[in-house]
């Protein structure tokens, strides 16, 4: 089905792709359910169609199965969806090796991402990642020859996390206003995953300032986020709910507000909070983007 330029496959086709992920996995269905933190009975019900997969479940299925959420939902990694497709996404390791290798690669990347978010890039050693994964430094170097390679892949992983989250959260929202509000909500540095993601991005901004080789990847990643906002604003204009101001201009201002407020919140500037950030951003959307 195509709606507002977005391809949406049926839930039956989505279930078929989840079944393929399960068949290709070395884990049993019960073990796979445990790995993604889902009760095995709920997984069975979702596969039978008597229960819908939640956005977070689809994200965890994609990560554990080493596929993309876009493929799960739309049947292709490249199909245009509610969020702009990353130009440089994290590698799908199953194309390069066995499922065991894919699982180990994902484990290392996830551990490195969390360590960098919590401790800072320059405080994380290869041995720290190895310890977190219960393996050797040599194993880490097999997948990531140097620490710089790890940072580059961490950036790609952050992009994929954001993209997957946006696709799962937004693909059923056809109202552009509600989708834009949800996009704003997904950028708030709330405790947990989103705050960790903000930490990684702030470090990437810093490293990109000092290291020219990271700037193209950073620029492409940021452009994906910009395009997702601009696309939503254009759809809102087509629906007649947003003003006719240049979408690029509105997007530039909104993303600048998000960046500036997010930095102030995550660095605990006095008087700044997630709730305050949400209020300012929603006020901007209602005042400057929504048609009277």
From TrEMBL:
It comes from the Bacteria. The keyword Chloroplast does not apply. Keywords: DNA-binding, Repressor, Transcription, Transcription regulation. Residues 125-144 bind DNA. This is Transcriptional regulator, TetR family. InterPro entries: BetI_C, Cro/C1-type_HTH, Homeodomain-like_sf, HTH-type_TetR-like_transc_reg, HTH_TetR, Lambda_DNA-bd_dom_sf, Tet_transcr_reg_TetR-rel_C_sf. Residues 102-162 form the HTH tetR-type domain. The keyword Kinase does not apply. GO terms for molecular function: DNA-binding transcription factor activity; transcription cis-regulatory region binding. PANTHER family: HTH-TYPE TRANSCRIPTIONAL REGULATOR RUTR (PTHR30055), MYCOFACTOCIN BIOSYNTHESIS TRANSCRIPTIONAL REGULATOR MFTR-RELATED (PTHR30055:SF238). Residues 27-72 form the HTH cro/C1-type domain.
């Amino acid at each position: 089905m195509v709606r507002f330029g977005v391809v949406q496959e049926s839930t039956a086709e989505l279930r078929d792709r989840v079944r393929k992920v399960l068949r290709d996995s070395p884990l049993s269905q019960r073990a796979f359910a445990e790995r993604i933190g889902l009760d095995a009975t709920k997984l069975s019900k979702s596969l039978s169609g008597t229960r819908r997969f939640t956005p977070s479940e689809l994200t965890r299925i994609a990560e554990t199965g080493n596929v993309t959420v876009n493929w799960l939902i739309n049947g292709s990694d490249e199909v245009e969806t509610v969020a702009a497709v990353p130009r440089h996404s994290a590698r799908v390791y199953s194309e390069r090796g066995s499922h065991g290798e894919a699982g180990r690669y994902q484990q290392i990347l996830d551990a490195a991402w969390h360590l960098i978010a919590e401790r800072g890039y320059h405080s994380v050693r290869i041995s720290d990642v190895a310890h977190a994964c219960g393996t050797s430094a040599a194993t880490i170097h097999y997948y990531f020859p140097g620490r710089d390679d790890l940072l580059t892949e961490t950036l790609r992983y952050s992009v994929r996390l954001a993209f997957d989250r946006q696709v799962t959260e937004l693909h059923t929202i056809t109202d552009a206003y509600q989708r834009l509000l949800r996009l704003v909500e997904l950028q708030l540095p709330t405790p947990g995953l989103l705050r960790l993601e903000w930490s990684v991005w702030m470090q990437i901004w810093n490293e990109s300032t000092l290291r020219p080789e990271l700037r193209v990847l950073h620029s492409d990643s940021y452009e994906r986020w910009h395009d997702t906002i601009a696309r939503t604003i254009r759809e809102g204009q087509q629906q007649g709910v947003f003003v006719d101001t240049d979408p690029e201009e509105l997007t530039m201002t909104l993303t600048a507000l998000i960046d500036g407020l997010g930095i102030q919140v995550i660095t605990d500037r006095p008087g700044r909070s997630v709730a305050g950030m949400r209020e300012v951003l929603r006020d901007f959307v209602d005042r400057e983007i929504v048609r009277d």
